[in-house]
Amino acid sequence: MHTNGKPDHPRQALDVVVIGEALTDVVTTPEGTTEHPGGSPANVAYGLARLGVSTGLLTSIGADRRGEVLEEHLAGAGVTLLPGSRSPGSTSTATATIARDGSASYAFDITWDVEPPDLGPTPPKVLHTGSIASFLSPGAGKVKAMLQELRSECIITCDPNIRPALLGTQAEARHTFEDLVRLSTVVKLSDEDAEWLYPERALEETAAHILDLGADLAVITKGSAGSLLATPSASLSIPAVKSTVVDTIGAGDSYMSALILGLLTRGTGGYAPSVLEQLGHTAATAAAITVSRAGARPPTGDELRSQFQR
Question: N or C: lower Cβ tally within 10 Å for the chain?
Fold first, then answer.
């Protein structure tokens, strides 16, 4: 689809490689239509780069104006677009149509396939994936193969970012998710994701189940109620950081970016309770900054440090 043969590996190692969709969010209201760069994995990569982390993104961007806008957006933060990320087709879209009564309908025009580069000679410190990219064939199978290949070489993080309209049955989605968990080191999901996947379980039970499947750390975000971070030996509830909410667009992806930053900078403490507290507070602070302004505008490293100082 993207190239003939397997693409070359990146010339230098990146701290983080993100695999997943970059798409255009189209919002139509009675007042008109607006478009914004989107896709949870692309948002995570963008957030990481703004935090000063050397980040590569393996995605599928079409040969059209929307693809050009996405590339400019990502490059503006410093994201490296990996070989195999450009395709001859159209850029994927997610369309939300908002009626005058406030009700919304959603439509997706998404094609997901990738040709993975050879990261073996230069593995990243963290490999992140999730969302549509880890569920939608044919690309999902290639994502899974990359995780299997690199699981002993780096930390693997996963955020399912559930989109029920694209996932088939709940049982199928849960099976795919659990296969991903078995390959992951850290799994983060929202309370809405957890309740959709496991409606019969309390959030603490879902976290315990994720750990039983093999993850080292399970994180469940709960919006204004904070977040839960759990390991086989500890469980902490981290409060949300107070903020004046303008909108919540991109908050979960911003949380994920800062969580990965924390994993990279935690030192030798492993997943001790003090480390979990630092991880949770760093991620909550990033999310609080994001919701305090319109759109998916995650903090820079300077903004995050400034917030901690205050």
Answer: C
105, pLDDT greater than 50? yes
What are the tens digits of pLDDT across the range 8-57?
Answer: 555 568 999 999 999 998 888 888 888 999 999 999 999 999 999 999 99
Domain positions in the chain are 20-301
Instruction: Taking residues 50-75, report their average pLDDT.
Output: 96
Query: Rounded to an integer, what distance in angstroms lies between the CA atom of residue 197 and that of residue 162?
Result: 9
Q: What is 20-301's CATH number? A: 3.40.1190.20
Of 222, 220, 146, 233, nearest to 187 by C-alpha is: 220
How far is it, in rounded angstroms, from Cα 175 to Cα 166? 15
| 159 dihedral zone (left: phi>0; alpha: psi -120 to 50; beta) | beta
Roughly what angle, to the nearest 10 degrees, separates helices 40-50 and 251-265?
Answer: 50
* CA angle centred on 251, ends 165 and 299, rounded to 5°: 140
